[in-house]
Specification:
With 75 residues, the protein is mainly beta. The protein has one helix and five strands. It has a single domain, classed as Ubiquitin-like (UB roll) (Roll), CATH 3.10.20.30. The longest helix is centred in the middle third of the chain and has 8 residues. It is globular, with a radius of gyration of 12 Å.
Length: 75
């Protein structure tokens, strides 16, 4: 259950061994937080906020759901 006045960052495979939810204070900027928990330099990823691609300059708002997904290439 989400804490009042927070956002949730969901970390899952391949970035973590098991699904983990981290609660973020409103106003936390992704550029300051994400690199501290996603530390696999050989794995490219995309950040989603509420299911939409976001840039790292975004600062979370109450109720946001943030997750990182591996970047896929195809052709």
């Amino acid at each position: 259950m989400m804490e009042k006045d927070s956002a949730v960052f969901i970390l899952d495979r391949p970035f973590a061994d098991k699904k983990t939810e981290i609660y973020l204070s409103v106003g936390t900027c992704l550029k300051d937080f994400v690199p501290t928990v996603v530390n696999k330099p050989d794995l490219a990823y995309v950040v989603l906020v509420n299911g939409r691609v976001s840039d790292m300059a975004y600062c979370v708002k109450r109720g946001d759901v943030v997750l990182c997904v591996p970047q896929l290439a195809g052709g």
